[in-house]
Design a protein that fits this description.
Layout: H1 3-8, H2 27-40, H3 48-53, E1 61-63, H4 66-83, H5 90-111, H6 124-150, H7 155-179, H8 188-212, E2 215-217, H9 222-240, H10 249-260, H11 277-304, H12 307-310, H13 314-329, H14 332-335, H15 338-361, H16 375-385, H17 393-425, H18 439-459
Parallel strand pairs: 1-2
Helix pairs in contact: 4-6, 5-6, 5-7, 6-7, 6-9, 7-8, 7-15, 8-11, 8-15, 13-16, 15-17
């Protein structure tokens, strides 16, 4: 997730360097470039304030994970120093990790299209998913270190890395549901936790960073221990089969005997039974996520007040409440097309999260009221809750059109935002070797072209 970006963006400032993650140059030159860029271009997404603030962004953060400090970080440094050409753009490393995860997601999707294992899928899909998660984790740690090595760190690198991590959340969640062999209907609550638990932790961390100006990864966190644990789960499914997670061996052979050492004998009959291995994984993970979310929310609210902070959580709260409400009233709406609905939720989540990160790096206000992409979901939820529509062809078609439109919009928005940020910082997204003309050079080139055209017309 953000580990590799920690070091890269500690030196992160905009400049006129021809790179994907630019470093600091002279302040006067930055101001000149920003003023020229702003005067020459009317940006669609970036406001004038964002254009002024973007080159001056500096990242602050650290990772307290011992796993990251002593294993993952040294591994990433080795790969950067010995396996990565200096001409490779850091953002290309980030994108490669996402494509690897997408290949694993696609393989699992092909053999288990409806999130429910109805026949034994080939075991290799779990092996590849576990390997893909470890590769993604390593590449995610490498991109920032490579940016430091090539002196190409920039706010674009942080935004790009954050967006890729947000997209990857749904790949991991969907594959975890399948590897744990959870049933979309009978285990609906567990499936909900697998999806919205990582979403919640991700959004709250971004929300905290937006207010505090720094990202502090706890000693146990998702990008380090979380991804490694998820990969281990897939390796178990590859070795023992996903049926292992439906067994109760952990509870019966380890948890119950341990509890009996502390619980009086007359309370034994009150202990729950038949707790599956997969349920233990989800419950323990959910407990850790909720605890960390509460601690972060309490710290931000106590430090910055309620009114200015809690309102920024409204988009994510809206997404969660709508998903719960529709599922409670008519669960068939969600499970009739589980993949489509997962992609819809992912699109809505990625849009609100990347917008929050963009507001952070540009030091602008996160505009909660402009999350128009959520309005169809709110309207749909109200219609379902009032009983005006039930699961069927109409709901399926609406959700399919909604998901397709949201994903299309998100793709165009990403392209435009990346283009505008690159123009402001005078860099390329996937190229750190080819110089990009400065605003002054582009303006002079435009004048020369204009004068040449006028001269040619006059001669004619």
């Amino acid at each position: 997730m953000m580990n590799g970006t920690v070091e890269a963006n500690n030196i992160c400032k905009g400049s006129s360097r021809p790179s994907g993650r630019a470093t600091s140059d002279s302040g006067d030159n930055n101001e000149e470039l920003v003023q020229l860029s702003s005067s020459m271009h009317d940006f669609f997404y970036l406001s004038d304030e964002a254009v002024r603030n973007l080159p001056h962004f500096q990242y602050r953060g650290k990772d307290l994970s011992l796993l990251y400090r002593y294993i993952l970080s040294p591994l990433a440094v080795f790969c950067v120093n010995h396996l990565t050409p200096s001409w490779v753009a850091p953002n290309a490393i980030t994108l490669t990790g996402l494509l690897i995860m997408f290949s694993a997601y696609g393989a699992v999707w092909y053999y288990v299209p409806d999130l429910e294992i109805q026949s034994d899928p080939p075991r290799w899909i779990f092996l590849w998913t576990g390997i893909a998660m470890l590769l993604y984790q390593t590449l995610d740690n490498m991109d920032g270190k490579h940016a430091v090595k090539t002196k190409s760190a920039s706010p674009l690198g942080l935004l790009f890395d954050h967006g890729v991590d947000a997209i990857n959340s749904i790949f991991g969640s969907a594959n975890w549901i399948i590897t744990l062999m959870l049933h979309p209907v009978h285990d609906a609550a567990l499936c909900f936790a697998c999806v919205f638990g990582p979403y919640g932790m991700f959004f709250i961390s971004t929300w905290e960073e937006y207010h505090t100006g720094e990202l502090i990864m706890p000693i146990i966190n998702g990008p380090s221990e979380g991804l490694l644990s998820g990969a281990m789960m897939h390796f178990v499914s590859w070795w023992a089969g996903p049926q292992f997670w439906q067994q109760t061996t952990t509870w019966d052979d380890f948890v119950i005997p341990f509890i009996l050492n502390f619980v009086p004998s007359f309370l034994v009959e009150w202990l729950p039974t038949n707790i599956r291995n997969g349920e233990i994984i989800v419950l323990v993970s959910s407990f850790g996520i909720v605890q960390e979310m509460i601690l972060k929310i309490r710290y931000v609210v106590r430090t910055f007040g309620v009114q200015s902070t809690v309102c920024k959580l409204l988009p994510f709260v809206t997404l969660v409440v709508c998903a719960l409400a529709v599922g409670f009233v008519d669960l068939d709406i969600w499970v009739s097309m589980p993949r489509t609905n997962l992609h819809l939720g992912a699109a809505l989540f990625v849009e609100m999260t990347t917008e929050l990160m963009a507001a952070h790096i540009t030091h602008t206000e996160y505009k909660v009221g402009q999350r128009w992409i959520l309005l169809p979901l709110v309207a749909f939820t109200l219609v379902v809750c009032f009983g005006w529509i039930k699961a069927g062809v109409i709901t399926d078609n609406f959700l399919l059109i909604y998901a397709s439109s949201a994903l299309t919009f998100l793709g165009f928005k990403f392209a435009v935002v990346i283009h505008e940020v690159c123009q402001v910082l005078n860099i390329w997204c996937f190229d750190i070797t080819t110089p990009r003309p400065t605003a002054v050079q582009r303006m002079r080139q435009g004048d020369c072209t204009g004068n040449h055209s006028k001269k040619t017309a006059k001669e004619e």
